[in-house]
Design goal:
The chain contains ten helices and eleven strands. It has 259 residues and is an alpha/beta fold.
Length: 259
Amino acid sequence: MLKKIMCYQVLKRSIYALCIVGISVHTALAAELKVLSGNGSRPAVIEICKAFEAQTGHQVKVEFAVNPHVRDRVDQGEYVDVVVLNPPVLDELVNSQKVMASSKTPFGRIGLGAAIASGAAKLDISTTESFKRSLLGVSSVAFPGDGASGKYFVSLLSKMGIEQEMQTKLRPMSGEYNVEGVAKGEVDMIVVVASRIYGVSGVQYLGLIPQELQTWIGFSAGVSVNSKYPKEAKQLTQFFKQDQARQIMKKIGIEPLND
């Protein structure tokens, strides 16, 4: 009987030791990925990276900036594993050999949208004329001053023939802080990549700007040539194309791209 008890205790200790080893091996194999992303895809990138972490056990740290700043940071040698940018900007990093050409993964697109503060009288932006009236009817309109979507919006004012009237109303803001300015009452209205509006409390989404004025903002991911975890980084970029990620994008209003 004593011999059986001793054998059981030895077996129990052995199993415990194997479990500890297994946990250690799993921890050692888990990568810690750094992602630099443009602001337009912020809500999708956050949710998709969380889902990736849950599925794989890898850790993902994400930082956001306007597309040109992300490009410059990577060009200047900042360490990163995965970059998420508008396709033309990502192509610049591919051409400068900062991002692996074979890793480039387009995964979604969305148009420009508008929002105002929660509780404010809803504005009509469904047609070009109603959009013009709404812009002219508010005291201030925010847009990302350094972002591609902001520059495009400013070009639309000339196209709509209201460039001069809008000059005193325009409020260029940083990509990291613009929709939030509407929520806090600092500006009346925001025009920005529509996905950027998602999840910001204190604002009401008016919808996409009229189709005849619209531009599509694409999102692509790529792996840095300097990544310490190229296999895991490529795994993350491919995860952006999987069904779980596609469902996250659809919830936010981003149109997933087919292979």
